[in-house]
């Protein structure tokens, strides 16, 4: 069952000038609920200036670290990130949802895999969890990390990554690419874009040897790296992606709504559709116009317990399955084509397109 648990903060550690990591104390009776897979995230909830604010942050701990920790980088005008970086302290309590996310692959001690990780900025957070978990859990596997940052001072988890390198000198290699700090080797200067990936793939990194590839960072970097991998002949099924910031999420969503409205009559756009929402086995009935609120926003007025986090189409916290009828999504940065084909949607981006729609949050 999805839901929040109040956890005590065990530690707030300053990682860089603009980021902290937050460790949580997990009581014994919640140990099972908070077991996680590498690459998963936590949804945090708190009240800021009298308003409920939720955000998702990736777990940076390895599965064997005996630690539950997320990293929060402060962003301009970021309400939660500013709060976390300036206000949260050891001993505070905050609401935390059990781990979620599919940015992962099974750990198997029998594996002898080559993992390629490409990250930029705070995209290293889930990547760090993946690196530590695979190196510890698969003694015959190796990991190569390509990591982009502005300068050496902005490299999140630099000391920890160097510690991993010291512990696994033959199985872990790291390539740091800096965009605003000159390096002696030109290949290590600049942003991680399609051209940089092509240069790296033609030199020190052969992506065709990778059994699994993980990409995490801003949308531009992820899209460029994915295109370069495809050019290099890497099977797309091996590539796992997670976005930290979509390039134009709100613009894309607005355009999707405009395009959809252009194909509908005015009467049809304003027509109310009957939607049944199932969560925790309880059905809720509501009426929504196709060009009005999303299913999540409309349902949340009566069901405050519905799971959601980013409301930007980037996480899967609000994922549900359409059992009856049809819906249209504004944007989707999280669901795989296979999930969409199977009928799953992001309720924060979904609008009913038939007279009756039934969605179920309980189906995983």
From TrEMBL:
InterPro entries: 2Fe-2S_ferredoxin-like_sf, 2Fe-2S_ferredoxin-type, Beta-grasp_dom_sf, Cbr1-like_FAD-bd_dom, FAD-bd_FR_type, Flavoprot_Pyr_Nucl_cyt_Rdtase, FNR_nucleotide-bd, MRET
Keywords: 2Fe-2S, FAD, Flavoprotein, Iron, Iron-sulfur, Metal-binding, Oxidoreductase
2Fe-2S ferredoxin-type domain location: 273-364
Annotated GO biological process: phenylacetate catabolic process
Glycosyltransferase keyword on record: no
Domain annotation FAD-binding FR-type: ranges: 2-106
One Pfam family here: NAD_binding_1
GO molecular function annotation: 2 iron, 2 sulfur cluster binding; flavin adenine dinucleotide binding; metal ion binding; oxidoreductase activity
Metal-binding recorded as keyword: yes
Necessary cofactors: FAD; [2Fe-2S] cluster
PANTHER family given in the database record: 1,2-PHENYLACETYL-COA EPOXIDASE, SUBUNIT E, NADH OXIDOREDUCTASE HCR
NCBIfam families given in the database record: PA_CoA_Oxy5
Protein name: Phenylacetate-CoA oxygenase/reductase subunit PaaK
Gene that this polypeptide is encoded by: paaK
């Amino acid at each position: 069952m999805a839901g929040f648990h109040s956890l005590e903060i065990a530690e707030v550690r300053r990682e860089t000038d603009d980021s902290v990591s937050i460790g949580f104390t997990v009581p014994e009776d919640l140990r099972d609920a908070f077991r996680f897979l590498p690459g998963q995230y936590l949804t945090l909830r708190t009240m800021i200036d009298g308003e409920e604010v939720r955000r998702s942050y990736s777990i940076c701990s390895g599965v064997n670290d005996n630690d539950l920790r997320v990293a929060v980088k402060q962003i301009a005008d970021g309400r939660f990130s500013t709060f976390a970086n300036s206000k949260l302290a050891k001993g505070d309590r905050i609401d935390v949802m059990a781990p979620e996310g599919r940015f992962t692959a099974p750990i198997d001690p029998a594996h002898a895999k080559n993992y390629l990780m490409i990250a930029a900025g705070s995209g290293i957070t889930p990547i760090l969890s993946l690196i530590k978990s695979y190196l510890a859990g698969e003694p015959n596997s190796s990991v190569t990390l390509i990591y982009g940052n502005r300068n050496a001072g902005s490299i999140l988890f630099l000391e920890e990554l160097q510690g991993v390198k010291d512990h696994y000198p033959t199985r872990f290699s790291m390539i740091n690419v800096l965009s605003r700090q000159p390096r002696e080797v030109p290949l290590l200067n600049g942003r991680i874009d399609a051209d940089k990936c092509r240069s790296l793939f033609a030199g020190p990194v052969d992506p065709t040897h990778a059994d699994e590839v993980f990409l995490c960072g801003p949308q531009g970097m992820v899209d460029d790296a994915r295109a370069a991998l495809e050019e290099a002949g890497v099977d797309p099924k091996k590539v796992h992606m997670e976005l930290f910031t979509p390039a134009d999420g709100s613009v894309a969503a607005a355009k999707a709504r405009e395009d959809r409205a252009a194909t509908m009559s005015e009467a049809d756009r304003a027509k109310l559709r009957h939607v049944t929402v199932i969560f925790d086995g309880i059905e809720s009935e509501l009426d929504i116009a196709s060009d009005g609120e999303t299913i999540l926003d409309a349902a949340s007025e009566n069901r405050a317990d519905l799971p959601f986090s980013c409301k930007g189409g980037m996480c899967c916290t609000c994922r549900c399955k359409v059992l009856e009828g049809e819906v249209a999504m504004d944007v989707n940065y999280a669901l795989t084509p296979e999930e969409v084909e199977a009928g799953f949607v992001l309720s924060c981006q979904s609008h009913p397109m038939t007279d009756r729609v039934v969605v179920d949050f309980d189906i995983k």
